[in-house]
Each structure stands twice: as structure tokens, then as C-alpha cells.
Design goal:
Structural class: alpha/beta
Number of strands: 13
Largest sheet: 6 strands, mixed
Helix content: 40-55%
Radius of gyration: 29 Å
Strand order of the largest sheet: 1-11-3-6-2-4
Number of helices: 25
């Protein structure tokens, strides 16, 4: 039944009172800060807000369902999930079937905060996630930008606000408790506004107050059936188009409804959080976990299809869940021991055959560290690295049937050791060979810093590096020395500058260096750093030998010869560790 709605402020009060809740079949909050900013701008401009679909759960059935609260203070690493609510016995609640993202965006913008990872910092760094609240610049001219936004909403932290002296950033969270008229004017006068600036700022602030407290914006359809199967069917019909809800979110919702003993939503999300904290941090998703669940449970197809999420298959997945969870944790621990993380793991799906192998052979908890399994780990490392090095992409097209074929090989040949040779035969037959052509070798030699294949290649070329420690990809000759200005100052001819800058980021000028040593090295030329770090001539010679540095020149002028000679030595190394196709 379609019903007229109330104000945004009234809706947020119901969220705060736990009258509006989220059913377990709902997905997580996925909007980015920019989307919330855009929503508020749309509301201020009077654009349609859209209708909602609410499910009224009656007191006699409310205790039979699991519900979640709306996200308030979003933290990308530590608080990205909807908080679980206690069982709501004997009370009428309104479960939001459609409109969760919009209501959560309003809840965060008007009551909470967002803490997103800064791109330049590690996931493990506590300073990587500054807390930011939504602000509205009351002094910004009301002129549309390229995307049509008129009002300047931004998520900012206090330091950003203080630095921006040309703006007046109103904390949007204050509008909920602010009355219209004199209180708003008093706030602006306290900021020493007067004349046209005061009038303009008041107009904007009054519009925000109108949008939140006065306008009737929350219109909804109401579903009153207490049959969860009917509600799930409505939910699927609403979202199966895939434009608003990702398909894996939809399938997770089906799993949530069908698991009987375990809370699928909580288990899967907590596992995603756990494996992403391993090592220096990964960026694995619920898609990865769901596909792993299908693969490890030996469900016929690993494809994201509704027919694979039958009740019988979900019972099988639930029954195997403890072992599946353990295998995935051990798989990611193993990947971390190879030095991989979210920045260097080029294809998450490459871990799935390894996970199936560890699950199939019931690998113990110490598999990633015990000397007993060192040889097996080396085979896995070589196979995984070579699959990640393929520029064409092993883990792209035809992935579901490809994974199913690899699973069959591991079922037949993976009882006691990782069947790399047999896997490679199947891969070759499917046009996904792990042999490399001379052209591919040439491509590796010119690979640029930042290419996700680079770490995998360096780790294979220099296997003596203990990747369990934190190693950086370091420029042998510091990249800071190769700006156009510095090259000119060093007397480099103009026609060589562009070429030198490109060469400085290529494989021959890169090495794996322990984090602390890399910090100490900074912008020192390699000859100077080696002399400081290894005063003993024998130690310096040993370091240069194992890293294939050759004779390291003292000055930048010798870089081109160093690059050319090391390039050929690295070509020989690549040919020694990879299978090279004959021309």
C-alpha cells in the first residue's frame, strides 16, 4: 500500500529509536562520500527523492527474525558493517526493503561521520582513516558545476575546515537540533557575517533546514505479510536487475535466508574483515568468499547463478563452513608469506585453487610456516607468481568453467602435494599457458613501477628475500633524481631527459629492499648508500652480486650503462625461472 511520508528528521528519529531497522537479507552500505554529497545537493535542489519499500513486522513475529541497525559512524576498516541488533521481541518494527542506501546516507550525513582510507597510507596505519563529517559551504556561489551540483557539500575533518579560510563550512549534523529563524541567524552572526554574505548564507542554511525539518520527502510502499519467503521474493524482484544491488549481494541475501544454524551475513562479513587484516592488508570481497564457498563445497558450478544457491547447496555450504573458513584464512596467510597484499595481488581469483587445495588436503593451521611444507609452498609460490605475471590475464574470461576444471585436477591429484604440473597441462589446453614468449619477456624488462605484476616478478627473480618481512619495491637510482629540473641541473642533455625518466621506472632500476633500509636510503645515489650501509667491501660485493647490480656507478652519468647491463642480467634470470616458448 502506497503511503505519504514524513520529514527526513522524523525518519532519522525512527532510525535512532530502532523503529526503522534493516532485515538480514539487506546488503551492506556501499555508497562513497561523493554519493552522499550528491544526494544532499539533489535534496536542496528539490529533485525527487524516490519512494521506499517498508516491511511492517508485527509483534508476534518480530522475535523470529534477525535485524540490523543503520551505519552511523562509517569506518572503512573498523566499522564498515551494519551493527547487529538484539532480538526484537514483541514489538512492531519497520524493516527497510528498498531505500537502505539513501536512509543510511542521510543518517551519516545528519548524525554521523565517515572515515575513508587515505590513498598514500597502509591499511594498518591508524592515521590512514581521518574522521570526517559532512559540511556545507555557506559562502559558495550557487552556480552549477560540470555535473549540475549547486550546493557545496563535502566530508571534511576539522583540520581541513581550519585551513580553508575563504569558506564557511557549516557542520550539517547541527541542523537536526537547530530551530529555524533566530537561532540560525545567531549562528551566522557569531561567525561575523554581515550584508550580502549574511543574506546569502542565511538563504542556504534556511533551505537546508526546510529540507530536513519541513518538506514531506519520505514516501513509501508498505508490505504487511509476515511470510519471509514472500518478502524475499519481493526483495529479489526489486533488485535482480543488478543496477542497484550487485548480484553477489543478492545471492548473499538468499544464503542469509536459507542458513539455519549460522548467521551467514555475520559469518561472511567477519571473515572478509579477518582475511583483509592479514599481513599488510588485502582487499578481498564477499564475492571472493562466496565463490570460494561454492568451489570448496564441491557445488557443481562455481558461477554466481541463483540456481546454484538452492536450499540443498546452502545446507552443504553451511555444514562445511568451519572448514571453508579455516582454509581461506590459511590461504591468505600463505599469500601474505609470499609478500602479497591488496596492492600487489593482481587477481583475487588466483587464490581460489590454492584454497581448494588446502581445504581438500586438510592442511593444518601451521601450513604457512612449518618447514614440513616448505617444498610444497615453493611449488605453490612459483605457480601463483607465474599465473599473475601473464599480461593477458589468466584469471579473466571463462573464469567459472576454468575454476571448475582446476578443481577437478586437485580432486584427482592433490591429496598430498600441490599438482602444479597437472594444473598447467589443463591451463595450457584452455589457452591459458604459463609458458612465456620472448615478446612477453621483453615486456617484463620494460615493465614500469606501479605495474601490479612487478612485485611478483621481483619476488621470483630474487627468491632469497624473506617476504614475511615488509619489503618495498625500491628504485636503485632514486626516482627523485630523475625530474626534468634535476636532470638539467646535473648536466644531462635535453634529448636524453624523457628517456632517462622512463628508464628510471623500469625493472632494471628496481629491487626489493627491506622497509627500514629503504627509509634510510631515501634519495641517496646507490654508490653512496652502499658505502654507508656496507662499509666492508666484501659485504658490498655480496649485496651487489645477489641483487644482480653489477658495478654500481658513483654518479648519475653512468645510469644508462648500468640500466643496459642489468637489463641483460635480468633477462637471463627470467629465462632461468620461467618456461620460455621457442620462436
Amino acid at each position: 500500500m502506497y503511503k505519504p511520508g514524513g520529514t527526513i528528521a522524523a525518519a532519522l528519529e525512527k532510525i535512532q529509536q530502532k523503529s526503522y531497522v534493516l532485515p538480514a537479507i539487506q546488503r551492506e552500505f556501499v555508497w562513497k562520500p561523493e554519493q552522499i554529497e550528491r544526494l544532499f545537493d539533489s535534496l536542496m535542489q528539490g529533485y525527487p527523492f524516490g519512494t521506499f519499500l517498508f516491511w511492517t513486522v508485527k509483534p508476534e513475529t518480530s522475535g523470529s527474525f534477525k535485524f540490523y541497525d543503520f551505519v552511523l559512524n562509517y569506518h572503512q576498516r573498523d566499522a564498515a558493517h551494519c551493527p547487529e541488533l538484539p532480538t526484537l521481541h514483541d514489538q512492531t518494527v519497520t524493516a527497510v526493503l528498498d531505500g537502505q542506501q539513501r536512509l543510511t546516507a542521510l543518517n551519516i550525513g545528519l548524525r554521523g561521520s565517515m572515515a575513508m582510507k587515505l590513498p598514500s597510507k597502509w591499511w594498518t596505519n591508524p592515521d590512514a582513516f581521518p574522521k570526517r563529517t559532512l559540511r556545507l559551504n555557506l559562502l559558495a556561489p550557487l552556480e552549477p558545476d560540470e555535473e549540475g551540483a549547486v550546493y557545496d557539500f563535502r566530508f571534511l575533518d576539522d583540520a581541513q575546515v581550519e585551513r580553508d579560510e575563504a569558506a564557511l563550512w557549516f557542520p550539517v549534523t547541527e541542523i537536526l537540533g537547530m530551530k529555524g529563524g533566530p537561532p540560525m541567524l545567531a549562528w551566522l552572526v557569531a561567525k561575523k557575517l554581515e550584508g550580502d554574505a549574511l543574506n546569502s548564507a542565511y538563504t542556504i542554511l534556511d533551505r537546508l533546514h526546510q529540507v530536513v525539518h519541513v518538506d514531506q520527502r519520505v514516501f513509501y510502499y508498505e508490505e504487511e505479510s509476515q511470510d519471509v519467503e514472500r518478502v524475499l521474493n519481493i526483495f529479489i524482484r526489486l533488485n535482480s536487475g543488478g543496477t542497484v544491488l550487485s548480484y553477489s549481494d543478492l545471492l548473499l541475501s538468499i544464503a542469509v535466508a536459507q542458513w539455519k544454524k549460522v548467521d551467514a551475513r555475520s559469518e561472511i562479513h567477519s571473515l572478509v574483515d579477518e582475511i583483509n587484516r592479514i599481513g599488510t592488508g588485502f582487499s578481498l570481497s564477499q564475492d571472493f568468499v562466496l565463490k570460494a564457498g561454492l568451489m570448496l563445497s564441491d557445488i557443481a558450478s562455481v558461477g554466481f547463478k541463483v540456481e546454484n544457491f538452492t536450499q540443498a547447496n546452502m545446507e552443504k555450504l553451511e555444514g562445511n563452513w568451519p572448514q571453508i573458513r579455516a582454509a581461506l584464512v590459511r590461504t591468505v596467510e600463505l599469500a601474505a608469506s609470499f609478500g602479497l597484499n591488496g596492492q600487489t595481488l593482481r587477481a583475487d581469483s588466483a587464490l581460489l585453487p590454492i584454497a581448494y587445495y588446502l581445504y581438500h588436503r586438510r592442511a593444518p593451521a601451521n601450513y604457512a610456516v612449518s618447514n614440513q611444507f616448505a617444498a610444497d609452498r615453493n611449488v605453490i609460490h612459483s605457480w601463483l607468481t607465474r599465473s599473475l605475471l601473464k599480461a593477458s590475464g589468466i584469471w579473466g574470461s571463462g573464469l567459472d568453467t576454468f575454476l571448475t576444471a582446476l578443481r577437478e585436477v586437485i580432486q584427482q591429484k592433490g591429496e598430498t602435494s600441490f599438482p602444479a604440473r597437472e594444473l598447467e597441462q589443463v591451463m595450457d589446453a584452455r589457452g591459458k599457458s604459463l609458458a612465456f614468449s620472448p615478446a612477453e619477456v621483453e615486456d617484463m624488462l620494460t615493465m614500469q613501477y606501479g605495474d601490479k605484476r612487478m612485485f611478483a616478478l621481483l619476488s621470483m627473480l630474487f627468491p632469497f628475500v624473506d617476504l614475511r618481512n615488509q619489503f618495498h619495491m625500491d628504485h636503485v637510482f632514486p626516482i627523485s633524481r630523475f625530474t626534468a629540473a634535476k636532470l638539467r641541473k646535473a648536466g644531462i642533455d635535453e634529448d636524453r631527459i624523457e628517456n632517462l625518466s622512463r628508464m628510471a621506472n623500469e625493472l632494471p632500476n628496481l629491487q626489493l629492499l627491506e622497509g627500514t633500509a629503504n627509509t634510510e636510503k631515501r634519495d641517496k645515489l646507490p654508490g653512496e648508500w652502499l658505502a654507508d650501509h656496507y662499509p666492508n667491501a666484501g659485504d658490498r660485493a655480496h649485496y651487489c652480486a645477489i641483487h644482480d647490480l653489477g658495478d654500481v656507478p658513483e654518479a648519475l652519468e653512468g645510469f644508462e650503462q648500468f640500466h643496459s647491463e642489468r637489463r641483460e642480467r635480468l633477462r637471463t634470470r627470467i629465462q632461468g625461472v620461467l618456461t620460455i616458448e621457442q620462436e
